[in-house]
Amino acid sequence: MTKTSQKVRTAIFPVAGLGTRFLPATKATPKELLPVLDRPLLQFAIDEAREAGIERMVFVSHPSKSAIERYVHQDEELCAKLREKGKHGIADTLDSFAINPAEEQAHFVMQPEALGLGHAVLCAADEVLPGPVAIILPDDLIMGQKGCISEMIEAYEAGDAGHMVATMEVGRDEVSAYGVLDPIGEPEGQCVNASGMVEKPDADKAPSLHAVVGRYVLDASIFDDLRNQEPGLGGEIQLTDAIAKGIERVGLCGFRFSGQRFDCGSKAGMLRATLAYAGSREEFHPVLQEETSLPMAAE
């Protein structure tokens, strides 16, 4: 195997999806800016990258989602108005959330058509720094004491595999909703070496219960493999196919992260994330402890 040993300096955020499952809320607001309580999904992802020491963030967006770029960058006029009104705390929060160009880099590229996650990653190829890249899907919110991508990069830089994917164990009845690792031997700590991945296998044919979720650290060769990747189902370029192409060359492992993952691409997952985040903040404990008197809707 010929893993690139360079530091992970770039994170790619695929944010071009149109969020149809959250319509009508996403008609005017990008799904990545929907709040988990008072913090947009995208902010969790940005903060996770910051914690990991990422130098450059590349956002693969859609022309209709200009609100994302407005959100990411500092709004000096708005902050000045807030300070004029004495709302320094809110202004400080907005400043801390926004990209500080003196300390970090934000690049935007467009993905005009929904041609798959692999295509989205490939759109970022000309903007990444040399070396392996991290990919963070904001829809997959992972809460924990330490950020998932921080854990992964630490393990990646100490390990041998050139491609690393975040994994969690799921029930046999759930595997058909995920890509699933085909493991080699027993797990070594938090890492599971694998010979491949099976996309959405039937429950009785899944090679393991190690399901792949939305965090990746990939060898730089992924871009060459994506350029040569033939479109698959629905005419999309699949990232998993390109990862599979490089396994013999650079290796693959799954990383069993310590945090809790919420599928915020679904309404139920978004609600679970909101309740969990509220539970982590003492100011909302009284609300969570209240017994609601609202009647349940009839089936």
Automatic annotation (TrEMBL):
Alphabetical keyword list: Nucleotidyltransferase, Transferase
EC number(s) given by UniProt: 2.7.7.9
Xref: Pfam families: NTP_transferase (PF00483)
MF terms in GO: UTP:glucose-1-phosphate uridylyltransferase activity
Domain Nucleotidyl transferase, residue spans: 16-274
One Gene Ontology term from the biological process aspect of the record: UDP-alpha-D-glucose metabolic process
Catalysed reaction equations from the record: alpha-D-glucose 1-phosphate + UTP + H(+) = UDP-alpha-D-glucose + diphosphate
Family: Belongs to the UDPGP type 2 family.
Protein's UniProt name: UTP--glucose-1-phosphate uridylyltransferase
